[in-house]
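Final report, closing paragraph on structural work. Over the funding period we assembled a curated collection of sequence-structure pairs, and we close with a single example.
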Amino acid sequence: MRVNDSYAALRFKEFNIFLLVRFAMVFAWSMQFIVIEWQVYSMTKDPLSLGIIGLMEVIPAVSMALFAGHIVDQKEKRNLLIKCICGFSVISFGLFMLSLPSVLETYETKSILYGIYVLVFCGGLVRAFLGPTIFSLIALIVPKKIYPNAATWSSTTWQMAAVLGPALAGFSISLIGVHWSMCVIFGFSLLALTALFNISKKPILNPKLGEPVFQSLREGLTFVFKTRAVLGALTLDMIAVLFGGAVALLPIFAQDILHVGSEGFGVLRAAPAVGAALTMLGSTRFPLHKNAGKKLLLAVFGFGVCMIVFGLSTYFWLSVIALFLSGAVDGVSMIIRQTILQLKTPDNMRGRVASVNSMFVGSSNELGAFESGLTAKLMGTVTAVVFGGTMTLFTVGLTAIVSPKFRKLDLQKDVEDHER
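Its predicted structure, as stored:
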């Protein structure tokens, strides 16, 4: 096996199974979120209700993130991932039951809405463990010398699932309705669970088993805040996603501004992921290690521009192009961030570092959804999206000025050291 082989990670059987598991879970999760968004906005016609969905997931995800990272570093990863998927399956089944026609006819809208929020909250608890577990498991399946290649394929799989999940959600809502769409989601969670049993249990590499929890958390936070490359990448991406959370408002654009229905909603929701997936596939041939800092800054700047164009657009095709390009540049950002984390993080701290990553970046998606919903309520949908894009541009400019070391970040040497 050549370390510069674009398919190096795919030559490991368990890694291919891992990709199947990740695809099924991301597909199910992204499709579920879209179906929930559509159902909630159809029930309430209130932009703030979309923001509350994000808030209900982000509260438990953030509050439990550090403790989840500690537990992940102390436990066997495969079995922990099995428990996470089982938890997601229970939540999906609960949403399936809440969307039963008989339930919708029997109970008040407010009661059903509260039930959805409770299940989304439980999903946030599951997600607090899911991300760190997946991040840690990758490092136990492939050798260190192909971590960058494995990270690229893992991110690409994530984006491909994020393309198909929202796209299918839009068409599925139109063809079979919300209720049976939730049944499809439940089926994909069972597929992920079945495939995961074909991966063997992995050793626990943490030499400090039984370490006091607060000492463990302090060690993880200290590492992140002392490693400037990691901290810079997480902070930049967090701010960009926080203020660029226009995708949370897509049901409003689809129904009230562009007037394209659920099918158009599916296309709009999938467009960013299509762009990101193509970027990631290209990166397997053309790595982004060299001048990573400059590329990351340019990518986030491009993301902000795309959000402004999308917010101002009243044409469906222009909106789709803007979202597609936003996904393409966001794909660059994701690959560079994941490569930094894989290269800079010691094996015994992967769970805690991934948890901090989920607090910075993953949870900022939901906070961004809440921010977008709130600003749309206060200043209007279009103004909210343009405001978010403008704040993203401001963040990039500020980062470039105050952090010249990050601007000059280059990962080429780190990649070469791992390949030796």
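The radius of gyration is 20 Å. The chain has a mean pLDDT of 80. We thank the funder for supporting this effort.
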